[in-house]
């Protein structure tokens, strides 16, 4: 069944049902009952998208979701729970988020170059001499934002991925 994400920053009711700024609708326009937002956001949502795994990325002026502190950006699983799941990419690359670091793994070839950018394109990290199948990057300078990873392996495979940290 295909669903659509529908949000409006001031929407707090939909067909007399409380939705608190975000709802997930079925094709027939009914609210997806598996998507429960609880108390939802404390302020407006300005942007959203769905990633390849079906997680929902949201940005806006909010600082909390369901009473948990969130700094204007978050990722929800398809069931509306906060998600900080790991990301596996098509060319056997994997990005694992840990509390204090991010781990990048290539399951097939050695990593050659990794660049990390913020959403504006500002370079945050570059390592061009990895020559290993994994790399650990301390997480203290890149927390609470969308990151764009450019990962190249020794076989010339390049993956670009957006990652919510």
Structure description:
The structure is a single chain. The chain is an all-beta fold. It has strands at residues 3-6, 13-14, 17-18, 23-26, 45-50, 56-60, 64-65, 68-69, 73-76, 87-88, 93-97, 101-106, 111-118, 123-127, 134-138, 146-153, 158-164. It has a 4-stranded antiparallel β-sheet, with no helix packed on it. Strands 14-13-16-17 form a 4-stranded antiparallel β-sheet, with no helix packed on it. A 3-stranded antiparallel β-sheet has the order 5-6-9, with no helix packed on it. It is elongated and about 60 Å long. The model has no long low-confidence stretch (mean pLDDT 75).
In short:
With 165 residues, the protein is an all-beta fold.
Task: State the main characteristics.
single chain; mainly beta; four-stranded antiparallel beta sheet; 17 strands; 0% helix
């Amino acid at each position: 069944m295909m669903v659509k994400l529908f949000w409006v920053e001031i929407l707090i009711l939909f067909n007399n049902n409380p939705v608190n700024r975000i709802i997930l609708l079925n094709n027939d326009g009914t609210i997806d009952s598996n998507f429960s937002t609880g108390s939802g956001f404390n302020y407006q949502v300005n942007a959203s998208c769905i990633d390849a795994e079906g997680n929902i990325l949201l940005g806006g002026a909010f600082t909390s979701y369901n009473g948990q502190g969130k700094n204007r950006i978050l990722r929800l699983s398809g069931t509306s729970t906060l998600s900080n799941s790991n990301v596996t990419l098509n060319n056997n690359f994997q990005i694992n988020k840990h509390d204090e670091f991010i781990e990048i793994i290539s399951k097939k070839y050695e990593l050659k170059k990794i660049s990390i950018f913020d959403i504006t394109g500002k370079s945050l990290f570059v390592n061009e001499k990895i020559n290993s199948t994994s790399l650990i990057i301390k997480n203290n300078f890149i927390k609470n934002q969308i990151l764009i990873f450019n990962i190249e392996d020794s076989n010339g495979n390049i993956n670009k991925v957006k990652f919510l940290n």
